[in-house]
Amino acid sequence: MADLELYERRTYDVNVGDMSKVLELYSNFGWPALEAGGHSKFLVGYFVSDTGPLHQLIHIWRFSGDVERRKFWKNLFADEDFMAFAVQLRPLLHKQEIQLMQSAPWGPRP
């Protein structure tokens, strides 16, 4: 069986009442920094919860493996524009969960 891609799901629990600020920060600073730095090529998508646990921002990333994943986060955290955004984002979050996943060997992949 061929190596399967590695997916990383990051779920940020946003402080109640701060989602609009989070979305504005991502729109104006976070996303432009990700695109400008070439980091967005690993992104599957960003999502905002609508049912179940609320006040969550979820993003999913796709990597060829753990080496590429670790290199990505190291490079992103060295990006000054992205880190300037992250400093503004962090006070609006109260929890972060990271889950690594691999695709099952059947069915569609993103």
CATH topology: Alpha-Beta Plaits
Count of discrete domains: 1
The pLDDT mean sits at 94
CATH architectural label: 2-Layer Sandwich
Using the alpha-carbon principal axes, give the shape.
Answer: globular
| Beta-strand segment tally | 4
Q: Please write the CATH class name.
A: Alpha Beta
**Helix and strand element order:** EHEEHHE
Q: What gap, in angstroms, lies between the N and C termini? A: 19 Å
Q: Which stretches are poorly predicted, pLDDT < 50 over at least 5 residues?
A: none
State the helical fraction.
Answer: 25-40%
**Main structural class:** alpha+beta
Strand order of the largest sheet: 2-3-1-4
Radius of gyration: 15 Å
Main sheet: strands, sense, barrel: 4 strands, antiparallel
Quote the beta fraction.
25-35%
Tally of alpha and pi helices: 3
Quick structural summary:
The protein has a single domain (13-102), classed as 2-Layer Sandwich (Alpha-Beta Plaits). Helices cover 36% and strands 30% of the residues.
Task: Explain how this protein is built.
There is one protein chain. With 110 residues, this protein is α+β, with helices and mostly antiparallel strands. It has a single domain (13-102), classed as Alpha-Beta Plaits (2-Layer Sandwich), CATH 3.30.70. The chain has 3 helices and 4 strands. It has helices at 19-36, 66-77, 80-89; strands at 6-14, 43-48, 56-63, 93-102. Strands 2-3-1-4 form a 4-stranded antiparallel beta sheet. Helix 1 (19-36) runs antiparallel to helix 3 (80-89). It is globular, with a radius of gyration of 15 Å.
